[in-house]
Design goal:
eight-stranded parallel sheet
Length: 219
């Protein structure tokens, strides 16, 4: 199975967003990762539904939307209406996580759960069978371009063990500091989906960079 590559729009040039989306459409990227931040759950504000709706009309790749906000359950139908294929919510932001995942799936999207760097994977033991994607933050959420947290490798291994033990079909996604050095080690540890922002969009040849990530073999 080839690694799924989901470039993060947060690192794109927003003055030329049309050209950035065109590059994604022409590349080997599988998905387009979109970070929605509210300035409350994380100390930053990114973009909201005007951008999601606009991108959804022209992006040919499935939109992988990561909500770093409080009460993401209030925006499930709006997210589906934007054309998103995946809605990823934080474990730390959802009091009624099972209900939220059910609602995401009922709206026709894949349901993802994100864990902050300090949140252990064992909190998902009772719900791993209801998750399509588990995303591990390998930096503290809120800003792009941060240094990779090395303990993420062991965390991926523990999550892979949990998924295998519970016979879950959940895929493992990692977001933060994914580049030439970290990507192969993450894939070797059991990652299926790589989110990469600055490494892709700031590259001299983004399409070639995406291709190099795509060549990594996953489990």
């Amino acid at each position: 199975m080839k690694t799924i590559i989901s470039p993060s729009l947060l690192s794109a040039n927003f003055l030329h967003l049309d050209k950035e989306i065109e590059m994604i459409n022409e590349s080997e990227a599988d998905w387009l990762h979109m970070d929605v931040m509210d300035g409350v759950f994380v100390p930053n504000i990114s973009f909201g539904f005007p951008i999601l709706n606009a991108v959804g009309k022209v992006c040919k790749k499935p939109m992988d939307v990561h909500f770093m906000i409080v009460h993401p359950e209030n925006y499930i139908q709006q997210t589906a209406d934007s054309g998103a294929a995946i809605m990823n919510v934080h474990y730390e932001a959802c009091i009624h996580l099972h209900r939220t995942l059910q609602a995401i799936r009922s709206a026709g999207m894949k349901a993802g759960v994100t864990l902050n760097p300090s949140t252990p994977v064992n909190v998902l033991e009772d719900i791993i069978g209801d998750i399509d994607i588990v995303q591990l933050m390998s930096v503290n959420p809120g800003f792009g371009g941060q240094k990779f947290i090395e303990s993420t490798i062991k965390k991926v291994e523990r999550l892979r063990q949990l998924i295998n033990r519970e016979n879950s079909k959940a895929l493992i996604e990692v977001d933060g500091g994914v580049q030439a050095d970290t990507a192969p080690r993450l894939v070797k540890a059991g990652v299926n989906i790589l989110v990469s922002g600055s490494y892709v969009f700031k590259a001299s040849d983004p399409k070639a960079t995406i291709h190099s990530l795509k060549e990594l073999e996953t489990l």
